[in-house]
Amino acid sequence: MTHLAVLSRSLRLFHLLALILLVGLAFGCGSKTPGGRGGDSSGKSGKKGPRIPATQRPYVVNGITYYPIPSAIGYIEQGIASWYGEPFHGKKTANGETYNMYSDTAAHKTLPMNTILLVKNLENGRSTIVRINDRGPFVQERIIDLTYTKAQELDIVGRGTARVEVVAMETQPPGEEQQVAAVPGKLPAETVKPPAGAGKPQSPPAKAPPIPDFDQGNFYVQVGAFIKIEDARTLARAFAKRGRDVVIQQYPAAGMNLYRVMIFASNSLRKAKLYEKELQAEGFRHTLLLAR
């Protein structure tokens, strides 16, 4: 075989290999799935997965990544509570609400938004109920940031922090905000007992087995708030005639002293909510669930 024939054969082989390589590259590029939204590794396109709320996505603060948990069921935690006030008042919270330092909300790093928490001050036994609507506090060992009002109820405003236990009670659907507060301080100064002959006052039901969700102290339902003490006493006597334990508590609001009438509901939050619904069905539309 001549040198010319060998050269010709080598050129044909080179062209064949080049052609195979080009075909392979073409098929390789054509099999890739577009990245980003709308694409996945299966090759299917145009389908979007379930939308994750922004408040449930991982986020980074001060170099630390936080991963919100999908459910608060059974959640119990102990740690340091703090509070935040004036510099944040009126600003947006993590879920888009406007922060109100006098409301019943709180901030937590990972719990789902609208989780209802029972917060107990382990140093003095006081407790309150809050709803999560913000993220924080981003300080080591601190587990929850309370509003000014809730910090007052736990008596931690002066010190700034206290050791607490938080217990998840439920997750509240957006748009169905429930008014929940706590009775601060000691027992109300005035107690209205049922009159003689009205039957024995209903005693608080025995506590069920210790279930963190509900059996957490005494729960009252506020049925009215009045400027005049006599108006409060009139309503209180009406409930006392039913055999209910009623208390009247004086508290400052809007630059004046009000008197609120509170009916003992139950030691169980679940039963207290049922009683609150009964009162609402009777026409008491602006009830307020209170815990002590």
Describe this structure in words.
Residues 21-46, 173-189 and 207-214 have low confidence and may be disordered. The strands form three sheets. This protein has a six-stranded mixed β-barrel. A six-stranded mixed β-sheet has the order 9-14-11-13-12-10. It is elongated and about 110 Å long. The protein has helices spanning 3-30, 148-153, 229-240, 269-281, and strands spanning 59-61, 64-66, 76-83, 105-107, 115-121, 127-134, 142-146, 161-171, 180-182, 190-192, 215-226, 246-253, 256-268, 288-291. It has 292 residues and is α+β, with helices and mostly antiparallel strands. The longest helix has 28 residues, at 3-30.
Question: Secondary-structure blueprint of this entry?
Answer:
Blueprint: H1 3-30, E1 59-61, E2 64-66, E3 76-83, E4 105-107, E5 115-121, E6 127-134, E7 142-146, H2 148-153, E8 161-171, E9 180-182, E10 190-192, E11 215-226, H3 229-240, E12 246-253, E13 256-268, H4 269-281, E14 288-291
Q: What about the largest sheet?
A: 6 strands, mixed, barrel
* Strand numbers in spatial order across the main sheet: 3-7-4-6-5-8
- The topology string of helices and strands comes to HEEEEEEEHEEEEHEEHE
Which secondary-structure class do the elements indicate?
alpha+beta
Task: State which percent range the strand residues make up.
Answer: 25-35%
Radius of gyration: 31 Å
Characterize the overall form: elongated
Poorly predicted ranges: 21-46, 173-189, 207-214
Helix content: 10-25%
Please work out how many helical segments DSSP would assign: 4
Multimerization state: single chain
Distance between the termini: 105 Å
Tell me the total number of β-strands. 14
